[in-house]
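Section handout, structural biology tutorial.
Before the tutorial, make sure you can parse a SMILES string by hand: atoms, branches in parentheses, ring closures as digits. In the record below the ligand is calcium ion, and the chain has 325 residues. In the tutorial you will relate the predicted structure tokens back to the input. Do not try to memorize them.
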Amino acid sequence: MRIYKFIILFLFIGLSSRLISAQQVPAEVENIPYLVTFGNEAETYWGDDDFCQVFFFLIPEDYSDPVYIRVFDPDCGGKVDEINFGFDTQTEFSIYGGVGCWSDKDAQGTQPIGNYRSGNLLDSRVFGIDPEYDGKWYTFGPFDPRDGEFSDEFNGYYFKIITQGISGNDGNLYQYYLSIEEDRNVSVEGGNAFTYEYTFRLWNDTVNISHIYPYVEDGTVRVKQRNFDWDSDGRIDIYSVDRNNSSAIVSGEDYWSESEIVIMEGEVGKSLDFQFVKRKTPLVVNNNVVITTMNQYEENLRFFTKPIGGVPKYKSVPVFEPDDE
Ligand SMILES: [Ca+2]
Ligand SMILES: [Ca+2]
Ligand SMILES: [Ca+2]
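Predicted structure of the complex:
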């Protein structure tokens, strides 16, 4: 006679009930306060390794009305930005579309080198100190979705926005929104956004947990994460549908740390959940950080603001153990 033991794991990773608004970058489900890009004269110990941030927006093929790319607080000065001996930083925001804007290999890198400004330049603007846009939105566009680059991977058109600190040494904090309206934020249904290297600000409190969601593409066997200037600020915990916490190695001041996980079958084609749990004491303030992920071929993976496959929840799994008697 066989007796089956049931071992049922009731473990639940939260956030499932939160609304996913993909076109706000950072997204609600990421719970990240701001993106950040420093002027290119800053020391890297301020938390930005290359003074450049590249994001892509994805617009579904069946959406044909004009879209706008909006930037919150594009100026560097005023309340939310990080001053370093007086604000003197110029930040350039540039929008690209057309063939190659995403598919060019250099556009999929994590450093502003080679032909990373591939595609057609559609619009560009430099911001310094600008009270007119301090704490306010600046709108690029309208753009015809068909001026993006088509990809059949998700059946949509890609646009690229490059934000680069072209002078000065201060930290420009900002957010994006892909909108169907010029003067307010209204999402494109089915839209998404992603980056290969995420440079952002952690919360100035120990309560909030920020998240990012690397997409595990077909064929991925291992994922290596690399993070920069984490200031030994707590932990990076990794969850997925099949993973109840793997910890990642966290960097200190002004250097990269890396660690690797082996991917399980059930994680392929879905997203991982990287959770950033800050140190409780003492509080690390104004912590700017950089993170990238790559597969076993050292190809960079993408962080989608609307996680592919949804926000992963660890499944309660019944495990059947045969027991012969
Ligand atoms: Ca300065
Ligand atoms: Ca700003
Ligand atoms: Ca830092």
